[in-house]
Amino acid sequence: FPPQAHPPQSASMAGVDLASISVGSAGHATRECRPCAFARSSSGCKFGTDCHFCHIVEEHPESVRVRPCKGKRERLKRQMDAIEKAVAEDPDLLTSGKL
After folding, report:
1. CA distance 11 to 80
2. C-alpha 41: how far from its chain's center?
């Protein structure tokens, strides 16, 4: 990193591996950064330290989204389709509590 690209040091960054920090981590101490969705993935972030998103993901738990597997998404879609079809055939199902 050039000296200006280093994120500011703070107590919240204690124990963080500086080699894994990206350019986008610069605003981390003031919570002005956005987390990288790929930093902790199995393949990792392809931009590495040049990434414009924060690689200190463990401190962004509220923004880490876990996507359900494809099988679960397809199963839920089939269930919703069945519910929509049943309600289209009998609109009273919604108020009768039979769903």
Report:
1. 47
2. 10
CB 54 within 8 A of CB 33: yes
Identify the burial level of 96 via C-beta atoms within 10 angstroms of its C-beta, where 0-12 means exposed, 13-18 middle and 19 or more buried: exposed
Give residue-wise pLDDT tens across range 21-43.
788 888 887 888 888 888 877 88
Q: DSSP alpha helices (H): ranges in 24-69?
A: none
54: nearest Cα among 88, 90, 87, 16: 16
User: How many DSSP H helices and E strands does the chain contain?
Assistant: 2, 0
pLDDT above 90 as % of the chain: 24
What are the distances in angstroms from CA 90 to CA 84, 85, 98? 10, 9, 11
